[in-house]
Design a protein that fits this description.
198 residues, globular
């Protein structure tokens, strides 16, 4: 009888308090994840306000208009007598493809910039979490979300937000130990796209 354990007896906690530490770690991780999600919501709401309030500038309009001309077949990049291709081709073609799918205009371009900005923010969070942990990841999200310069620049349909997104995901796919071959190849492909975008 001495070898049997009586029913309804809870196990004795480990002397080092590992169960309590594990529980408090889960709570802290959940709080930090929630803070990061709140930062993403703040970025979305502030960017939503910006894309409806910012005045368009000539560069933004040219990215959209040249992109439309190139993807509609009216002209092609670097064509003699065509629009001046003063940046790499994908900086015009990608907004052009977006307009071909969702309609031409500034509204489409601004929503495209908002979506790309959110993808960039996710990449920033993944990189910061990998390098510094959940606390730094949440801080990085809020630093981007509350920076008025980023909100102004990334709220326009220009190539800056696209490049920031591409660079963030190149780092996601290639930084850190244990990267799979497909991740490295995809990261290299995105790096190549970055070069021919801006």
């Amino acid at each position: 009888m001495s070898d049997t354990i009586a029913p309804n007896v809870s196990p004795v906690p480990a002397p080092d308090g590992s169960i309590g530490k594990r529980h408090s770690g889960l709570v802290a991780g959940s709080i930090l994840l929630g803070l990061a999600l709140l930062g993403a919501v703040a970025y979305f709401l502030l960017s939503w306000a910006k894309i409806h309030a910012l005045r368009s500038i000539i560069d933004e309009g040219l990215y959209l208009y040249k992109g439309y001309l190139f993807t509609s077949g009216a002209y092609f990049p670097f064509q003699d007598g065509g629009p001046w291709t003063n940046h790499m081709p994908l900086s015009f073609l990608i907004p052009g493809w977006v307009q071909a799918a969702f309609g031409m205009g500034l509204r489409t371009g601004r929503f495209y910039a908002l979506g790309v900005g959110l993808l960039m923010l996710l990449g920033v969070w993944i990189n910061a979490r990998r390098l510094g942990g959940l606390a730094w990841a949440a801080a990085a999200v809020w630093l981007v979300a509350l920076n008025p310069f980023y909100l102004d620049v990334y709220g326009k349909a220009q190539s800056q937000v696209l490049i920031a997104c591409l660079l963030a995901w190149v780092l996601v796919l290639t930084l850190g130990p244990g990267r799979h071959r497909w991740q490295l190849l995809l990261g290299a492909g995105l790096a190549g796209i970055t070069v021919v975008t801006r």
